[in-house]
Amino acid sequence: MKEYITIKKSTFYTFTTIMAATILTCLLPWWYIMRKSRPLEYVDSNFYNAIYINNKRLLCFDGVKSDSAFTRIDFSHNNILHSPVIRTDSRFLKDYISKNIKYIERKRNELSSAQNELEYYINVHNVQDEGYDIVSRHYEKTGTAIARLDSFNCVLKRIQASDNISLQHIAKYKLNTLSQSSSTFYESMGGIWQNGLWLRMAKNGRGISTYKCSGKIFGEWNGDTLSNGIIITDNGVYEGSINKYGIPEGHGIFHSSSSTDWYEGHWENGLRNGFGVMSTPHKLMAGEWKNDIYKGERITYTSERIYGIDISRHQHVKGKKIYPIDWKKLRITHLGSSRKTIKGDVDYPVSFIYIKSTEGTSIKNRFYLSDYQQARKHGIRCGTYHFFSLRSSPQSQAAYFLKHSRINKGDLPPVLDVEPTQQQIANNGGPDALFSKIRIWMNIVERRTGIKPILYVNQLFINRYLNYAPDIKQNYDIWIARYGEYKPDVRLVYWQLCQDGRVKGIHGDVDINIFNGFQEQFDKFSK
Known about the structure:
The protein has 527 residues and is of the alpha+beta class. 31% of the residues lie in helices and 34% in strands. The strands form seven sheets. The protein has a ten-stranded mixed sheet with strand order 6-9-10-11-12-13-14-15-16-17. An eight-stranded mixed beta barrel has the order 19-24-26-27-28-29-30-31, surrounded by four helices. Strands 2-1-5 form a three-stranded antiparallel sheet.
C-alpha cells in the first residue's frame, strides 16, 4: 500500500509539471504580442518658482543659491530645467531681489569685460585666422547675454519698487507615451565597473546615463558611442563629442557653473588638446593647448600681414667697415631661424621702421638723422626709439631723447626700449623703482609730443615684472621681443620675431617685427 501511494504522488508531480509547461508555452507568444503592442509610459515633470505683480507673472526661476541668488532665472518657465527646487518664502523676496540685482550687475560687468577681450581679438585678426569664427560667434552671444541681463535687472527693479508682489511654487506633471516601435527612453544608473570608470551597457536611442567619472550625460546614443551630447557636473556643462567612457573627446564647448568662463575647441580624453578658445572676464586665450595647458597662438605668416624692422648703428657698422642702406631695394626675405609656420615665399615689403636715436644721456646714433630722412622720403612709416639706462635720471634721459630726435606729423609713436637684467633691476631698488622711472620718462615724452609712447620689453620681463605696474600694462601699448613659435600672450602693438632676419638692401642680420593686425588696423593705428 505504501509503495502504491508513492508511485501515485510521483505521477501527479510529473503530470503537473507537464501541464504548467504546456500552458506557459501557449501563453508566451500571446504575452510577447501584447508587450510589443503596449505603449511605454513615463512622467515628465516640471518644477519652478514664479514672481507675480498684481497676479501677472514676470519672472520664473528654479531655486535660490546659498548666497540668495536666483538659479536659472528666465522670463518663461519652459526654459527652466527639470531639477530639485529650493523653496523660498515671499516674506524675504525683497531681500532676494536686492541681492539678485547686485549679482546680475556683477555678472554683467564680467560679461562686458569678456566682450572687450573678444572685440580686441576680432580687431587684430581676420577670417583667415584659426578661431576667428569661434570668437565672432561668442562675441555675438555675449552681446545677447548682456542685453538679457539688462532686461532681467529692469524687471527686478520694477518688482523691487512694487508693494503687490507674490511668489508661487509650481509643479507640473505630464504623462507621455512611447510606442515600442519608437526610440526607447531609458535611464541607466550603473553599468560595468572597469578601470575606475562606469561603462554603459550598449543601448540605442534617447537616454540618460550617470557616470562616476563625469556626471549626468544626455544625448542620442548609438551603441556604445555618443557623437554629440551634454554632460552636467558640479563644475559646469559640457556639450559636444563624448567617448564611450563618458569623457569629452573631439570638439566641444564647456561653460563654467561658477563664472562666465567658457572654452570651445578640441578635447582628448577629457583634457583640452589641440586648438581651442578660452574666455574669461579678463583674458582671451585662442591657440594651441596641450594636456589642459595653454601654449599660445601659433599664427601663419603670409604676405597679408604687416612687417617692419628696427635698426641702429649696427646695420651700418661691421668691424671697421661702414655699409650704407640701399633704400630702393628694401624687401624682407627671411624671418629668422626660429620655428614658424610660413605660407608662400618670404618676400615682404617693409611697412614700418623704427630707428634708434639715443641711449641714456650720452650716446647718440650718428646714422639716425639720415636714416630717418630716407625712410620718410621712400614713404615708409617710421618711428624713433630710446634705449633706457638705469645710470641716469629719467628726466634727463627724456630731455636728451627729445633734443636729438625727430617726431613729426605722420610718424609712429616714440618707443622706450627697456632691457635691464634681473640683477640690474635688483641693484636699482627692484621693479617698483624701475616702473617709477619708466612712468616719469613716458609722461614727459607724452606731454611734449602729444603722443602716448610705446614700451618695448622682452617676454621674460612681461612674465616677471609687468604685473607690478598694472597701470602701464593697461594704458600703454606694448612691443615685445619674442622669438618662439607662439605669439605673445598679451595685448600688444608689435612683436619682434627674430634678431637674425634678412632684408634686401641691408647688410647683415636685421630685427624683423610684425604689427598685431592687418592693413585696416595698421592704417587706423598710424593715423
